[in-house]
TrEMBL record:
Enzyme class: transferase
This protein's name: Acetylornithine aminotransferase
Lineage summary: Bacteria, Pseudomonadati, Pseudomonadota, Betaproteobacteria, Burkholderiales
Subunit text: Homodimer.
Gene designation: astC
Family to which this protein belongs: Belongs to the class-III pyridoxal-phosphate-dependent aminotransferase family. ArgD subfamily.
């Protein structure tokens, strides 16, 4: 027995170096270690202030430590934590009612992450097709540059080979097509396809919005072949585009929708939404999760949903988006040798670097952080901005000021 733990462990100093010593090296986090945050303001161990335009990768959409969420969670913490799936609970029932009333869906399944939500969606699609059409209808169509999670199934469905290298053999009957390519979709989606999964806005793939005509054609092809259309709205959902879910702005209704990230504002929860007919495929014992839909997560998610899903809140997201786009367009005008275009939807935007700066998005991210601005990247050629949906005009202006300082520093180097 190796008794390494002592009573003072919670008082030991920890630094970024501690990560390299004790954590599995699946990430390469920044040198600074955040310790406190409120809204879009964040402070590290040294007391340095940052303006957070990442939202924890489009997660803390109501800001860090959102008062309404803190209040709801605190109340639930003192009421009921966990029961297991042998029992239901009031918060999850209220959350399911609210989500089904707000969307196309009739039924909800809750889990702990976007990957789990997509895993459930893909399993449902396979099982439904096997039940209704037989085992030969099993092929899944996804898009290159997509991202759907890190389980072996979802990472195989995601269209980025770098995430599957070394994990072979991979699940079979999965094919990838170019995003926004209608002809490629027509060629790939045949009668043996059980599901087509797509992000209405590709996030990790470069912040690329789907063309309305493309998404409508996917809907038509699925109707024609009996395949199910799955919208992965893990990153684009929960108000991020200015609609509660992005599909609403496109006028294209999926058969299955997945959500996570901002659904819990940082508390782990994922959801798969679908219809009565499809949900009936997953009978008792066919799928499950220990923690999914627990009272704590469900309470948080309902509070987030009720806050975001109002006309005034969503209208403000669109207004803030217009102001953020204008600020970024100003950067393109003033730094044409660094940036080419801005793209995305709502408050999920990508600033694409110019040919001269190919592969240097990470350099811009690091320079911004040094100035006190946290931004993301989406690949090596896109600086991604996903601020909390409560971002103010003043904070957008401040982000622009800090970005200019960062870019000037890169120019002078």
């Amino acid at each position: 027995m190796n008794a390494k733990l002592d009573s003072s462990v919670t008082e030991r100093p920890v630094t970024r170096q501690t990560f390299d010593e004790v954590l599995v090296p699946t990430y390469a986090p920044a040198a600074m270690v955040p310790v406190r945050a409120s809204g879009l303001d964040l402070w590290d161990q040294a007391g340095k202030h940052y303006l957070d335009f990442t939202s924890g990768i489009a997660v803390t959409s109501l800001g860090h430590c959102a008062p309404a969420v803190v209040e709801a969670l605190t109340k639930q913490i003192n009421t009921l934590w966990h029961l297991g799936n042998g029992y239901s609970n009031e918060p999850v029932l209220r959350l399911a009612l609210a989500l089904t009333e707000a969307t196309f869906a009739d039924r909800a399944f809750f889990c702990n992450s976007g990957a789990e939500a997509n895993e459930a969606a893909l399993k449902l699609a396979r099982k439904y097709a096997h039940t209704k059409f037989g085992p030969n209808k099993s092929r899944i169509i996804s898009c290159f540059s997509s991202f759907h999670g890190r389980t072996l199934f979802t990472v195989s469905v995601g269209g980025q080979a770098k995430y599957t290298e070394g994990f072979e053999p991979l699940p079979q009957e999965i094919n990838h097509i170019a995003y926004n390519d209608i002809e490629a979709a027509r060629a790939a989606i045949g009668d043996d396809v059980c599901a087509v999964i797509v992000e209405p806005v590709q996030g990790e793939g470069g912040v690329v919005p789907g063309d309305a005509a493309y998404l409508k054609e996917l809907r038509a092809l699925c109707d024609k072949t009996g395949a199910l259309l799955i919208f992965d709205e893990v990153q684009s959902g929960m108000g991020r585009t200015g609609e509660l879910f992005a599909y609403m702005g496109y006028g294209v209704t999926p058969d299955i929708l997945t959500a996570a990230k901002a659904l819990g504002n940082g508390y782990p929860i994922g959801a798969m939404l679908t219809t009565h007919e499809l949900a009936a495929t997953l009978g008792v014992g066919t799928h499950g999760t220990t923690y999914g839909g627990n009272p704590l997560a469900a309470t948080v998610a309902l509070t987030v949903l009720e806050t975001i899903n109002t006309p005034a809140f969503l209208a403000r997201v669109k207004d803030a988006s217009a102001k953020l786009v204008a600020m970024l367009q100003g950067l393109i005008t003033d730094y044409p040798h660094m940036f080419s275009i801005v793209r995305g939807s709502g408050l999920l935007l990508g600033l694409v670097v110019s040919d001269a700066f190919k592969g240097r998005a990470k350099d811009i991210q690091k320079a911004a952080e040094a100035q006190g601005l946290m931004v993301l990247i989406a690949g090596m050629d896109v600086v991604r901005l996903a601020p909390a949906l409560i971002v103010s005009d003043a904070q957008i202006a401040e982000a622009g000021r800090l970005l200019r300082l960062a870019l000037d520093g890169i120019k002078a180097a």
